[in-house]
Amino acid sequence: MVRTGAMNVVLDAFDAPAPLRMVAYTLGWPFQWLGYKGDPSMPPATRAITALGPAYIKFGQVLSTRPDVVGEDMARQLRVLQDKLPPFPREVAMAEVAKELGRPVDEIFTEFSEPIAAASIAQVHRARLTETGQDVAVKVLRPGVERAFRKDVDAFYFAARIAELFAPGAKRLRPMDVITHFDGVVRGELDLRLESAAASEFADNTSNDAGFQLPPVLWNYSARRVMTLGWADGLPIGDNDALDAAGHDRHALGERVLSLFLNHALRDGYFHADMHQGNMKVAANGDIIAYDFGIMGHIDLYTRRVYAEILYGFIKRDYQRVAEVHFEAGYVPATQDVDEFARALRAVGEPIFGMDATHISMGRLLNYLFEVTERFGMETRTELILLQRTMVVVEGVARSLDPRINIWDVAKPVVEDYIKSSIGPRAIASDLGKTALVLARFGPRLPTLVERALIAQAQEPEDKSARRPWKRAAAAGAAVGVLATLIITHAI
Ligand SMILES: Nc1ncnc2c1ncn2[C@@H]1O[C@H](COP(=O)(O)OP(=O)(O)OP(=O)(O)O)[C@@H](O)[C@H]1O
Ligand SMILES: [Mg+2]
User: Fold this and answer.
1) pLDDT of res. 439
2) Whose CA is nearest to atom 25 of ligand 1?
3) pLDDT digits over 308-360, tens only?
């Protein structure tokens, strides 16, 4: 950062106090010669991040969606990281495609363009299939990207270890676990067969979502380092002028981005976890097209219910309930005071409730949330990292489409729908039904199991069985289980 001049930009963006600047300049002094040079034609922050490596680019992409946190100027510089990074030569990509697909490129395609977009791990070419004449997008991994990521992730492990050793306050943030999680995410991203599978599962889940499209995967033309998709073009979702000129309703688009994400997270438990502007376009008919399925988030049924209850509690301003849910799920240590936590949550929720989002300082809000997690000794939950990261990104994208969008207003109908279908009586009935099915699978063996339990019980000397009341309870439980199974399966 020192060598590229990004240090000053960052210090200014965060209004760093004088003592911090002094430390940064003193420690950074030798790096004006030792640091990576990067590409001098880029603006400082982008130049520094691209010189550092692909893992840092991922981080920069998240920041690029939050001009309200990093500043307009910085966010604009960082947007280059989304899909306009320097590409590698077309010949190299063609050689890679030929190697991966086992046939020469001019045999598979009648046309193969120069790179049309390039981001952290791959670049994309437009091509036409010889067999069918279909227009496609061919995504090719960057040469050496695996090694570059390894180097970055190793550096992150090193930093996490240092933080765990020397910053006791950082322990609750579980730096090593966070990096291990990140490492796993990145590994998945570097195998395009996994991305193809993700694209196909996501397409199945979302086939009925109005105003949403995904390019289809062409499995026969895809491999580990090459992926071919149907061509799907539109206007960049980050280009407000272009959207206005084409007559798209930006407010509606912003709301749709948010509600699609919430629906995917709650309804399907499977969501696109890399929703920065470079991965979305707006089709001519107004549909949102999503690309890039390298990072997908998965949340289990239980976590989804917890998440829905938390969102619902905030929407209803029932901070007590939100606090209780945090304790029930173990997000806040049981030793803390639930009422006090509820009050801290009220201080988060009340000032922003019903407020036009333009008046909310997201930087301050995130800061305060962070303080709350610290005060109540909350630890990082790795299963929630992708969800939290995506909420930050998606809300940023929606706000850049229309600064007045309020996430709570948009979330209300989606969350209410989910609560109705997943937490109310219908959900209980469905849970019971599923339990019955599991029991039914053991059906043929249940009578013998109960009989054996009862015989064992009868044969036990009276005094011994009296000391083991649980055995009697277990036998009774099994008998009730069999009965319930028979009744429920019959009813189903
Ligand atoms: N099917 C498609 N049709 C048209 N353009 C596409 C298609 N797929 C991808 N693109 C374009 O190529 C760009 C780069 O592709 P992609 O986002 O998959 O790469 P990436 O390196 O994985 O990105 P990231 O850094 O976000 O992980 C996209 O931003 C999009 O503009
Ligand atoms: Mg991308």
Assistant:
1) 79
2) 120
3) 999 999 889 999 999 999 999 999 999 999 999 999 999 988 888 777 777 77
343 and 449 both lie in a single domain: no
d(CA 450, CA 481): 9
> Within this chain, do residues 335 and 481 fall inside the same structural domain, yes or no?
no
Active site residues: 274
Contact 137 CB / ligand 1 (< 6 Å): yes
- Quick one: 413 and 440 in the same domain? no
Query: Of 56, 83, 110, which residue is a domain's last?
Result: 83
Task: Answer whether residue 351 is part of any domain.
Answer: yes
Nearest atom within ligand 1 for CA of residue 57: 25
- Which ligand ends up closest to the CA of 292? 1
User: What does the angle CA 43 – CA 49 – CA 51 come to, to the nearest 5 degrees?
Assistant: 95
| Domain count of the fold of the chain | 4
Whether 382 and 283 map to the same domain: the answer is yes
Q: Is residue 279 lining ligand 1, measured as CB closer than 6 Å?
A: yes
What's the full length of the chain, in residues? 492
Q: Rounded to the nearest whole angstrom, what is the distance from the C-alpha of residue 329 to the centroid of ligand 1?
A: 37
Dihedral sign (CA 217, 218, 222, 225): negative
Domain final residue, candidates 154, 169, 187: 187
Is residue 40 domain-shared with residue 13, that is, in the same domain?
Answer: yes
Judgement on whether residues 246 and 343 belong to the same structural domain of the protein = yes
Same domain, 333 and 391: yes
For 213-216, the CB contacts below 8 A with 24+ separation are: 213/283, 213/287, 213/288, 213/289, 213/290, 214/289, 214/290, 215/137, 215/289, 215/291
In a domain? residue 328:
yes
Instruction: Specify the pLDDT at position 15.
Output: 84
| CA 221/CA 229 separation, integer angstroms | 9
Q: Rounded distance, CA 255 to CA 274, Å?
A: 18
- Predicted pLDDT of residue 471: 61
Backbone angles phi, psi at 123, to 5 degrees: -135, 165
Confidence of residue 475 (pLDDT cuts 50, 70, 90): low
Alpha-carbon distance 63 to 276, whole Å? 10
Residue 102 included in any domain: no
Residue at 207 is within a domain: no
Tell me the residue range of the domain where 271 lies.
Answer: 233-423
CA dist., res. 385 & res. 482, Å (int): 41
Tell me the backbone φ, ψ of residue 56, rounded to 5 degrees: -70, -30
pLDDT in tens, 40-52: 999 999 999 999 9
Q: 346 and 244: one domain?
A: yes
